[in-house]
TrEMBL record:
GO terms for molecular function: isomerase activity. PANTHER family: BIOSYNTHESIS PROTEIN, PUTATIVE-RELATED, PHENAZINE BIOSYNTHESIS PROTEIN. This is Phenazine biosynthesis protein PhzF family. Belongs to the PhzF family. Keywords: Isomerase. The keyword Isomerase applies.
Length: 289
C-alpha cells in the first residue's frame, strides 16, 4: 500500500529554514502501527495524520520517528497551511481534536496560521548545576534573576535562560545527560533561550529533545508558546508587546526560523496562548507500507 505524504517546512524564515514536517491527508484507514511506520520512514521530527472527527473540524495524530506525541506546534502549522494552500479551508477559525485536547486554529490572510495552545502550567525548578553540566556550560552563563523552570502549554519543556547569544551558539550539549534529565523530569526536552537576538525579536532559542530522537529542532511551536507565558510571568515582555511576540530559532543549524506568538491577558492572567507562522517548500512523496 502506498501512502502519499506531503512534506513542508513550517515556521520557515527562508526557503531552507523552518522545521520539516510530514502531513498525511485522509488517514482514517491507517492504524497506530501504520502511522508509526510512515512517520519512521518519513524521518522528520513529526508527521501529522489528518482524520475525520465527531468533536472538531479535524482529528490529528502526531508521530515522531519512534513514538506518538500529544501535540506538535510546527506540524499543526504545516498541516493547516497545507489545507489552506489546497483550498480545503479558507480564512477563519477551526478546531483540531488532539491528545492534548480540542484546540482552536486560526487561518488568517496570506495563509498565516495561528494555533491555540493550552493555558500555561508552571512546574518545578530543576537543579541549575545539573542543567549547566548537561549543556557543557558554566553556571555563570545562565541568567540568575529568572529561574530555570518546567512550563507547559500542552507539552512540558525545561526553559533555560542564557545570558548571551555567544553562549547559546557555542554550547555543545551532552545529549545523553539531557535525555536522562528529560526522562527524570517527565519533559519533552530543553528550550534554551537568550534575550539577545539577531533581528530584534523577543528571544533567540535552541531546542534539544534527544529523549525523542530529536537532537536539535529548528522551530518548536509548543516550546515558544510556553516561553511567551514564562516571559510574561517574569515581566520580561511588556503588556503592549504580548500580542506580537517573535522568536528566532534554527540559526545554529543554518535553518533560520521565525515563530510568532500572541497572548491574551485579563487581570494579569493569561487566558489565551497562540503560536503562528507560515510554511514553505510543499512537496509530495509516496511511502510504501
Amino acid at each position: 500500500m502506498q501512502i502519499k505524504v506531503y512534506t513542508l517546512n513550517a515556521f520557515a524564515k527562508t526557503d531552507n529554514g523552518g522545521n520539516p514536517a510530514g502531513v498525511v491527508l485522509n488517514a482514517d484507514s491507517l492504524s497506530v502501527n501504520d502511522m508509526q511506520k510512515v512517520a519512521g520512514k518519513v524521518g522528520f521530527s513529526e508527521t501529522a495524520f489528518i482524520k475525520k472527527s465527531n468533536k472538531a473540524d479535524f482529528k490529528i495524530n502526531f508521530f515522531t520517528p519512534n513514538k506518538e506525541v500529544d501535540l506538535c506546534g510546527h506540524a499543526t502549522i504545516g498541516t493547516f497551511y497545507l489545507l489552506a494552500s489546497k483550498g480545503i479551508i479558507k480564512s477563519g477559525q477551526y478546531t483540531q481534536e488532539t491528545k492534548a485536547g480540542i484546540l482552536k486554529v486560526e487561518c488568517r490572510n496570506n495563509n498565516m496560521i495561528y494555533m491555540n495552545q493550552m493555558k500555561p502550567k508552571f512546574y518545578e525548578v530543576p537543579n541549575k548545576a545539573d542543567i549547566a553540566d548537561s549543556l557543557n556550560i558554566d553556571e555563570e552563563e545562565i541568567m540568575s534573576d529568572i529561574p530555570i523552570q518546567i512550563v507547559s502549554t500542552g507539552l512540558k519543556d525545561i526553559l533555560i535562560p542564557i545570558k548571551s547569544l555567544k553562549s547559546l551558539y557555542k554550547m555543545k550539549p551532552d545529549f545523553q545527560k539531557i535525555a536522562h534529565i528529560s526522562k527524570k523530569q517527565n519533559v519533552v526536552g530543553y528550550h534554551v533561550f537568550t534575550l539577545e537576538t539577531e533581528h530584534g525579536s523577543t528571544a533567540h532559542c535552541r531546542n534539544f529533545a534527544p529523549l525523542y530522537d530529536i537532537y536539535e529542532e529548528a522551530a518548536t511551536g509548543t516550546s515558544n508558546g510556553a516561553l511567551s507565558c514564562y516571559l510574561y510571568k517574569y515581566g520580561l515582555v511588556s503588556q503592549e508587546s504580548i500580542g506580537n511576540l517573535s522568536f528566532e530559532q534554527g540559526y545554529s543549524m543554518k535553518k533560520p526560523s521565525e515563530i510568532l506568538a500572541s497572548l491574551i491577558v485579563d487581570n494579569e492572567e493569561i487566558n489565551e496562548v497562540k503560536v503562528g507562522g507560515i510554511a514553505l517548500n510543499i512537496k509530495e512523496k509516496n511511502i510504501e507500507l
